[in-house]
Amino acid sequence: MPGQLLISSLVLLFGFNSPAPIVAQANNEPALPRVYTAAEKKQAVHMIVATALTVIPEPPDCAAEPCVALTFDDGPDPATTPQILDTLQTENVNATFFVLGTKVAGNEAILQREHAEGHEIGNHTWDHKDLTRLNNMQITAEIEQANKAIVGAGVPSPQLFRPPYGAINSHVASTSPMPIILWNVDPKDWHHKDPNEDVRAVVDAVQPGSIVLLHDMHATTRTALPQIITELKQRGYKFVTVSQLLQLPAGTKGIYRSR
Ligand code: NI
Taken in order 124, 128, 131, 132, is the CA torsion positive or negative? Predict the structure, then answer.
């Protein structure tokens, strides 16, 4: 693990209860502890950090390997999202969270954890209105208010937008400043609340390049997640964020349901 390598290297360097490095003396006098200069320490730290960073694996090449993007909508939810993050961490899997602006206050630490652990955070509007019933100004306000809340939580500004219910019309499509991300696998986890059905519906439907719609506030989805990941891994799938899956150049717009 790069993190462990980094920490153990720093412990060695600065000597928490470890013997100080010794240099032999030419004149048979007792060996003296070697004292590192500040510049030497700084250089060593740079070298260790650079080494640790190079060990972090590159995202998979989704043109050559079967990839899938799990997406979680309508959070963060303090009761279930942290457990979903625990599962993703244990399985070493990255996902994308389409966050509601109204859910950010009080849950900033969850957003920061999502970002710190390599997940992508997308915009799912301020309060989950059906945007096809709004005018362009109201649509813009829904998107911008959510962006402001998300950035205010200390994470990068979203690069992806998912309209509530996947509801789009020409106004929504032309008003969104970001690519619109829909899905091609929907187990309807919000409807049946049955973990086994979630697992079957996802695993049977996923194809290389799929985007899977899930919701992080359902306990049943949290329960289903480890089995979904296990079965997809057995089928050779690599888990990526939506941006890793689609590799869209900056400034791209459009509507995407899969790679
Ligand atoms: Ni939603």
Answer: positive
